[in-house]
Amino acid sequence: MATKSSNRWLIAVAGVVMQLALGAVYAGSVFRIPLNKNYGWTVSQVTLAFELAILMLGFAAFAGGLWMKRSGPRRVAAIGGLCYGLGLVLAGQVGGHLGLLYLFYGVLGGIGLGLSYIVPVATLIKWFPDKRGMITGLAVAGFGAGALITAPVAQRLISWLGVSQTFTILGITYFIAVSGSALFMRNPPADYRPAGWQPPVSEQQQRPDYTLGAALKTWQWYGLWAILFLNTSAGISIISQAAPMAQETTHASAVAAAGLVGIISIANGAGRFLWAWFSDFIGRRRVFQVMFLAQAIVFFLLSRVHSFGGLAILAFIVLLCYGGGFGTMPALAADFFGARNVGSIYGLMLTAWGLAGLLGPTLIAHVRQSTGYYTDALDLIAGIMLLSTALPFLVRPPKPSTHVLPGLVQKHA
Asked: Is 130 helix (H, G, I), strand (E, B) or coil?
């Protein structure tokens, strides 16, 4: 059954707006110095609040994916927007209580991020079976680019009103943006098909839709989790060290190093769309192979570059691949397990994001601390990326077993 194509594009626009608001979390570094000056908290203490938010995002996205099956996408996104906005508003009222910052910004805000993040991804995959890679890339591109808007706005607000009022204003704004966008979120009819589109021959062979339980019984789910984890760990290690690395290895000024953070934010957003769109043409497993190989080369070169321009170009490539993983993996999960339950299946995969957010920065910081240089850490990541190129080659779509218990796999209507 075909419905008006304009309806689905309106939902897509709402999804991008929602992700732009959610992606503001990547501008968290803007608050580090003001919080340090106001309350005397160290960089590591403030950073932990943002790491907690990313960790909670991964687990809350899984919960949101399960919840969507019972309540639909609109309610999940609206509650997520409330938690996210309220978390920021309350973060502005913590005074000198660091534990409350962790609770409100890290835990409550992170839960709101995860609940809302999974909604446009899982919903748009169902509306765009003809453009699966492109639409998942578009759905999360806003998240990668959100910091570009938030960082300068938040910086200006902090200089005018202070950090507490800035948290409050941003929290209210994000609540309106996310909850307003949630009003447009709905699933297509069960027999929906875009006008004039016919499924590829492979899909016409009636590949079943896996439930989460059935997907977890396949080794392929864990293979996709590992691919996302490895790709994310590499990129987030650069995000966490971009400014100090630029100053140490290229002797760039603090202003130039801060500019590098903005440059890689552009790459993060662009990569989510470009790689996912490209995957519609060359295949999603091939995209991950190319990204892993490119990063193996880039990380090897990163340890040997001494010019700011060279570092910026290489870091840009890494963040293109980092964003590309988030843009491509939802569509790859839908290719393997069907689109019907991708909210819970891919939602649980996002725990890889939360764990990578702890491992990647910790690994590169520990090796840098113990050796005094970034060289060994970057070479180690290059080796890991080179070995990782084998994973997308080995992981192939599961073959549904005739012995799967009833109810674990759902046939297409």
From this structure: helix
